[in-house]
Amino acid sequence: MATYLHQWSDKLRSTMMAGYAQSKPFTWQPENTFDNSSYAAANLIWSLYPYLTVGVEYAYGALENKDGFSRDNHRIGFGMQYY
Prior knowledge:
Helices cover 0% and strands 72% of the residues. The chain is built from no helices and five strands. Strand 3 and strand 4 (52-65) form a beta hairpin.
């Protein structure tokens, strides 16, 4: 897993992250056993006021099993922090 934080200004920042995991299954394990996955995401966070922060994030993930079955997923998330 790797991450990078970029400070655009005093009120605007982004974080980018990526990761990969692999676990080679044994021959005796079922065909639907996890083999590998990858993940990547990037966000944009805006501190509007000292007590209000909003942000948006895009994330992508992929999974592959021992038998070659694979899936991927795209997500967009929005968040707000008020304190």
